[in-house]
Design brief:
Endonuclease, Chain A; alpha/beta
Length: 185
């Protein structure tokens, strides 16, 4: 059976504005089976937020780290992500910011580049997104996410009482490299 992950070439680059980055991200999010880890300076795309919420409802663990100062802006949808039960945390950097823009899908695909997860990135800005299956890069970005996760703070706002949130401690999740995606789900 060919899925979106196996059908993707080892590496490709897409460019915006209107280069199809959000559409490709949504397609890959829909194909996720186990876990999506995302670190982003900005997240305001309701289109991508809906794709992540749908993945979470399918049982995919979704963990997001956002820059705290940027998330405090009115255009951020961080509160909506939390209300959807998505494990969203925030990093406050003194005299700087958490400027990462990457997503790991089932530890099989890394998406990184200048592309923020925003409507401006898709429709107005000149941005780049690299999609790769390179194992060395996957390991490096997974290690960076795992380094940042304990530094990031959970939100102070309550999640929806009906939402099932994944464990807020990623140590309880399945390690990235151990059998991820091999279950034949």
């Amino acid at each position: 059976m060919v899925n979106a992950v196996t059908a993707m070439p080892k590496m490709k680059a897409l460019f915006s504005p209107q280069g199809g980055i959000s559409k490709e991200l949504s397609r890959l999010i829909q194909a996720a089976r186990v876990e999506i880890a995302l670190a982003a300076y900005a997240f305001s795309s309701k289109y991508l937020g809906n794709a992540l919420a749908a993945a979470r409802k399918r049982g995919v663990t979704v963990c997001i780290i956002l820059d705290k100062d940027t998330a405090d802006h009115a255009y951020s949808i961080d509160e909506w992500l939390v209300a959807q039960g998505i494990d969203t945390r925030f990093i406050q950097v003194k005299n700087g910011c958490m400027h990462h823009k990457f997503m790991l899908i089932d530890n099989k695909i890394l998406i990184t580049g200048s592309y923020n997860f925003t409507n401006d990135s898709e429709f107005r800005n000149y941005e780049a997104a690299i999609f790769t299956k390179d194992k060395t890069l996957l390991q490096a970005f997974s290690a960076e996410f795992d380094r940042l996760w304990p530094l990031a703070l959970a939100p102070s706002l309550p999640a929806s009482p009906s939402s099932k949130r994944p464990s807020p401690d990623r140590r309880h999740r399945r390690p990235w490299g151990e059998g991820v995606g091999d279950e034949g789900q």
